[in-house]
Amino acid sequence: MKKKLVIAVTALNAIDSPGPGVAVVRAIRESTDFEARIIGLSYEALEPGLYMHDLIDKTYQIPYPSGGTDSLLARLEYIHEEESLDLIIPNFDAELFNFIKLRDKLMAKGIRTFLPELKQFESRDKIKLVEFGKKNGFYVPKDRIIHEFRELKQIEEELEYPVVVKGKFYDAVVANSFEQVEKAFLKILAKWGLPIILQEFIKGTEINIAALGDGEGNSISIIPMRKLYITDKGKAWAGITIEDDRLVELAQKFIKSTNWRGGCELEVMLTDDGKPFIMEVNPRFPAWIYLTAAAGQNQPASLVKMAMGETVEPFTSYETGKIFIRYAWDLITDINEFQKISGNGEL
Fold first, then answer.
1. What's the pTM?
2. How much is the average pLDDT of 138-147?
3. Do 316 and 207 belong together in one domain?
4. CA-to-CA distance for 96 and 152, rounded, in angstroms?
5. Which helix (H) or strand (E) holds 44?
6. 174 and 225, same domain (yes or no)
7. 3 state DSSP class of 8
8. Residues 11 and 22 grouped into a single domain
9. CA 2 – CA 321 distance, rounded (Å)
10. Comparing 90-104, 165-179, 332-346, which segment has the lowest mean pLDDT?
11. What gap in Å lies between CA 178 and CA 161, rounded to an integer?
């Protein structure tokens, strides 16, 4: 008899810069090893995933990460009373700190997570990427961390263009002049606040690697993907699984050096002379994570099993040449549903 699990998932914003939530749920739904009741956790009433009733069984709104851990815990306790949650899979960078801090309190109530330790989470932060690279022997681009606007003027003469302007959580803009740097700085500042990172531009082929670690240094799954189509926000709109031992070894080295627990994504620029520069480490599943299930290594389903205490053997092969192509779809719902989630915080 299949095990029945109640799994809560965040990041259901399937927009032009999508969250991973819908893809995570699709992958979980494909597993034949357990049955899942999926609870959506949303921040906005117009996250499309809320209205995908074939994927999400029920949705609850939760407080924004800026509200801190107390308000989040109180809301999760209410949801747990209603749903008897077995597992929560958070998928936004900005919310992970709160969920990591609450891990033990959630576990005491019978709610599992499968997240990195706070030390692991902070070690790969964009702000510490250069230090992380030096310590562990990775190729990483040089950067400058900007804590206030006047620092930009002070380093204007030092900048070599193009330069990448990055927010502390999301967004990256390639700037070819100081005017473009200023414009990108102010735009990202308004959205994500300080600090802001100015990163060396590395020319090469953009590769993303989805990886899953067991928390003891072992890589359970690694799938490299080359971007085939990129949006104006730098997001992969199409990609293909590729075979490259250098990339698999890079991800294995990352997981081993950090003892990473859970899913993560390495954003890599592979230079013409074969050097894999780590541009960023995202501490959660990427939005294209459903491709791992299609390629034969279902990372979200494997995470569920490990979170529930099962031993999962590392995958040894995957299908190359598997392509994902993202598409837009007009999802029709009713004003009554919108009013329920907006007014009651539940749908």
1. 0.92
2. 90
3. yes
4. 30
5. none
6. no
7. strand
8. yes
9. 32
10. 165-179
11. 9
Q: What is the pLDDT of residues 188-240, one digit of tens each?
A: 888 888 888 888 889 999 999 999 999 999 999 999 999 999 887 777 889 99
Q: Which of 136, 116, 113, 114 is nearest to 259 (CA)?
A: 116
Token pair for 337 = 């549903």
For position 195, which CATH number holds? 3.30.1490.20
- How many other β-carbons are positioned within 10 Å of the β-carbon of residue 194? 14
Task: Please report, for the domain that includes residue 77, its CATH number.
Answer: 3.40.50.20
Name, in order, each residue with C-beta under 8 angstroms of 123's C-beta and a sequence gap of 6 or more. Answer: 132, 258
* Alpha carbons 272 and 250: distance in angstroms, whole number: 17
CA distance 20 to 263: 11
Q: Are residues 337 and 317 in the same domain?
A: no
* Lookup: tokens for 34: 């357990």
Structural domain count, the chain:
3
222 three-state secondary structure:
strand
Proportion of the chain above pLDDT 70, given as a percent: 100
Q: Which residues pair with 269 in a beta bridge?
A: 206, 277
Q: Each residue of 199-208: pLDDT tens digit?
A: 888 999 999 9
Within this chain, do residues 45 and 150 fall inside the same structural domain, yes or no? no
What is the SS3 assignment for 298?
coil
Q: Which of 151, 170, 200 corresponds to the end of one domain?
A: 200
Domain range holding 10? 3-114+330-344
**334 and 320 assigned to the same domain:** no
- The CA distance from 62 to 346, in Å, is 10
Whether 275 is in a domain gets the answer yes
Query: What sign for the dihedral angle of Cα 23, 312, 284, 12?
Result: positive
194 and 212, same domain (yes or no): no
Amino acid at 318: Y
Residue 149 lies in a domain: yes
Given a cut of 90, whether residue 241 has pLDDT beyond it is yes
**CA angle at 274 for the pair 271 and 277, rounded to the nearest 5°:** 55
Asked if residues 276 and 250 have their Cβ atoms less than 8 Å apart, the reply is: yes
Mean pLDDT along residues 116-122: 92
